[in-house]
Amino acid sequence: MSPAKTHINTPPSVSENGHLPNLGSQIGTFQLSSVDPCDPSFTPLLYRQREETFLNRTTQLRHGSYLRRFAKDLSLDIRTLINVKSGINLDDFMLRHGLTGCIVVRQGAILLEEYRHGNTPASRNDVQSITKSFVSTALGIAHREGKLSVEDTVGHHVKELKDTAWADVPLLALVNMTSGVVEPSDEPRPADIPNPMYATDLYPLADPGAVLAWLRTFRKVSEPWEEFHYYNPNYYVLSTIISRAVEEPLEDYMSRHIWEPAGMKYDAYIRTTGAGHVDGHGGLSLTLGDMARFGCFILDGLDTRGKGPAVPADWFRDISQAKNSVGPRAPGANEIVPDFGYESGWWTPPRGHEYHQLGDDGAFAAIGMYGQSIFIVPELKTVVAVQSGYPEASEDLYTRNAEFVAAIIKVLRQEY
């Protein structure tokens, strides 16, 4: 008996003479950056792929050998309790506000962990301005190390800006968005004039001094501390200063002083400028679990054991107490995040009213443009972190997220 023949169906794409079609020139021509970033169908995917979709390059933050492990505590049905006590249905809330992930960690145990729209525990998500809270933490570490002082001026560290509006601005004013320095014109930049912070076809990654040359054109609109201007270039200047003071790339410094000791599970990516340097104000992509690990790392620093970030002893204690959220940075004084104040790269919720508020538990938050957030609640030793794929910025996102976190905290206060 002859062996049975194995029949292989010829793919339709193969020509009759058996030759492969000429597809080589088509391989790899699809670019994620060509997908409409404002189309809600695509935003969750694009936020997961930021290292591929940013016009600029990105660079890595690397985790170390230590892994912060979380236990799981499923004894509390938070889903049902927040629905009963606050009328918030978790599934409806996540759908309505485009949340791609939510995690609640209390005393090192996960009470709730949910993912949507294709995100998984291994999915990095762009967290927008939460990046600032990581960079401000790096500033505190560099200050304590003696590499710089937060009372130093910009001109002391960046000679290229010594004779500009930035020259006499203290670093502490930069991190608090009270530098008093803005772009040379109030008019929106024309679409055909690229922002030197970012690489484009018109503005390639070629001139390492381009961003600082651009910053030299800025103007002074107030003295430091007088006015609050939530202005991203403050953090590029700050990132440049930290990197120069510690004499290494900022991503390497943050890897050693934040990613490794925090026990991050995954590497992260952070956006660079048209000059090839970390821009500092946004563009960080990390996993939901590592967002929670960062929050727990900070909680460690508020604990008497002092195992958190190596910042000055009162750094996060002052933020938790909103000690310096005053004047133009007081809760309710700005129009960016309603009712919140701002302090050293973090948002401070109101407190001390006739009804209980997040601030009464010492809470403070890192908040991103499209609803991403890390809420740290010291009184309950709790971290709530949110990933978002929402395609538009809105004050309502900040307000609803705060209400969502407040509902969770209300449950925890009653149950523990």
TrEMBL record:
Biased composition (Polar residues): 7-16
Gene3D superfamilies found in the cross-reference section: DD-peptidase/beta-lactamase superfamily (3.40.710.10)
Annotated ranges, domain Beta-lactamase-related: 103-388
InterPro entries from the UniProt entry: Beta-lactam-related, Beta-lactam/transpept-like, Diverse_Enzym_Activities
Pfam families membership: Beta-lactamase
Disordered: region residues: 1-20
Protein name according to UniProt: Beta-lactamase-related domain-containing protein
Provenance organism: Cylindrodendrum hubeiense
Lineage of the species this protein comes from: Eukaryota, Fungi, Dikarya, Ascomycota, Pezizomycotina
